[in-house]
Each structure stands twice: as structure tokens, then as C-alpha cells.
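Hello Y.,

Per our agreement to keep a running log of every chain we model this quarter, I'm adding this entry. I've kept the format consistent with earlier entries: sequence first, then predicted structure.
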Amino acid sequence: MKVVDCRKCRFFRSIEELPEPVLINAWAWIEENRPGSRLLGYCTRYDRPVTHYRGRCYGFKPREEQWKPAKYTITEWLEKIIGQ
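Predicted structure for the entry above:
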């Protein structure tokens, strides 16, 4: 397991993206479990607030994997269809 940056994970949400109820629950969790820590974001995979950006995580999935490149370009695909 490597050290990763949460901001590059597909499950990370910044504070600006969070709805009000989730933000209130995140602050309550921090006050109960990690008093004095800053709220930096939210992890939707584990439904927990993020208090540090870098660390080890089993659930890390890079954002780049969300959109894989196409197998064929549009012109190659059209040539296959028209050529048949």
C-alpha cells in the first residue's frame, strides 16, 4: 500500500462540494473523534471526513481511471462499420 494524495482520488469531495447536512455531520465526527483537526474534505467511499490529504488508503482509486481511452478512434470505428 503506497502513500497517496486524497485530492487525486475519485471518492474525495472538497468542502465546497458538500451539502449542508453532510458538512454538519462531518464537523460533529471531527469534534467527537479528532478534536482540534481541520476539515479538509470528505471521503464518499468510507463516508468519513478527511483531516489530512496524504496517507495510506486501501480504497484509493485515481480520478484518471474514471474515463478510459476509447479502443478505437471515431474514424477507425466508422471505417470498420462502412467497410463491412
